[in-house]
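Shipment paperwork, digital attachment
Item: protein structure file
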Amino acid sequence: MRLILMRHAKSDWADARLSDHERPLNSRGRRDAPSIAGWMQDNGCQPDFLLSSDSKRTCETAAFLNSRWESPVPTHFSLDLYLASASAIFQMIRSTELWLADENGTASSTPETLLVLGHNPGISAAASELLGHSCGFPTAGLAVFECEVSSWSDELGPENCEVWKEIRPKQLP
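Attachment content:
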């Protein structure tokens, strides 16, 4: 199974009246998110399911990602991922099947590729735990992990997750 941890694209700080939760993307963020989505699609990393913070900048990042992919990816937006710690992010990942359940509580198929879209410092801390060393993500940066698990409810760690690729927007043409 494949896990993608991604930080939202660059946000706009121009309007000081907006709360942190309500900050939108700036022009660089609106440029980088589709570029990263194109890289993901070209490299076989389009997710089957997206877990995202419900902040304006992550919602906009998710919309730009989905607009670039051949078909929209089912997405669950959650306040629990807004500025979440690494442990909260891993808890959300372990709960993935809950977000896929229908009205009868029956989960659809488990996503093979799961994208978690969040904020620093939590998203970098989660990636650091899986890598076994410290790392930092710039905006719209991501890491793709190959995970030897049978379900997203399994514990994730460096013993069963190996980084496949780390991408930053500045690396793209």
